[in-house]
Amino acid sequence: MARGWGRTLRPWIAGLAGLLILAVIGRQVSWIRILDLLASTRLPWLGAALLLAILGVSMRAFRLWLVLGRAAPFPGIWRSVCLGYFSSLFLPMGGGEVVKVAAMNRQTGLSLVRAGTALTMDRLFDVATVLALAGSVAGHGLLQGLRAGPLLLLSLGAAMLLALLILLLVSGDSLRAWLLRWSSHHPGRHAWIERFDEAHGQAAVLRRPGLAPGLVLLQACILAVDVTAAGCALRAFPFAQGLPAAAPLRLAFFVMLAFGLPLLPGGFGSHQAATILALAPFGIGTEKALAVSLAGEATHFAALILLGLAAIHGSGLTPLRLFRGAKVLDSPHPPEAP
Fold this sequence. Notes:
Blueprint: H1 2-27, H2 31-39, H3 43-67, H4 74-87, H5 95-108, H6 112-139, H7 148-184, H8 191-203, H9 211-235, H10 246-260, H11 270-279, H12 286-315
Helix pairs in contact: 2-12, 3-4, 3-6, 3-9, 3-12, 4-5, 4-12, 5-6, 6-7, 6-8, 6-10, 7-8, 9-10, 10-11, 11-12
């Protein structure tokens, strides 16, 4: 009962924290000044940021398709990823990830276990990117304003997931033998063997020759797109001209952390705080940073809405319909096509 209350209260607590952050920031700024700053934006740069956001999501869909070992048609994976990102605009606490898994199940026939395992593996690349950006920002001496706690927690989480992945790859057969012995003494638990086989089979995809280097190269391209998009959002404002190359790096890093710790749907609250912290070392005050945040988040919203509508049109699914009648395949080896 206590655990149920904890799951119910967590989104409300996070939402209240996000609203509190927005209220504190809102009391410190002149909204007339912010509107003047937004009116001075150069729309071509925001248009470029929007296109780069669309490209970044599509590249992440391609990465997930490769992580899955091309076990499903790419269009279905792309639509699933787009639906997930679209849903993150109005679902709290990472609800978009749940939508991605459900959409892959409905769109491609992949089991929920395999889709969830692949998505977890895929997300490790984003965590690695955040940590790589942290190293780059620290190398420029621009890690001030960020406590070590969040990075340490992120590093520990990534290390645990990586250790579990390596354990599946190295000792999967031994673990399966132990599960068989365990299930023989626990009638009705044989379904766990199938689930383990699905997760183990998905992890084994990384053993394919040439896949790991290709994924690393693709992730480097995704990182370049994300940093360039942050640079375009900055260049849309006249006051941001002349900022050093480290500014987009720090902005991209803080924004990634903000989206990794969503307080309100769409990253509201955490995105604004992250942008203010990111730009402070470059002499960008709260009002200017808030204008950058609002313009950048507007392009982010526009990109995800366009992708979401395209995915809904192509699949006939909506986030609400995804949870009606979703099925888990009985076979540990899902079909190659829906």
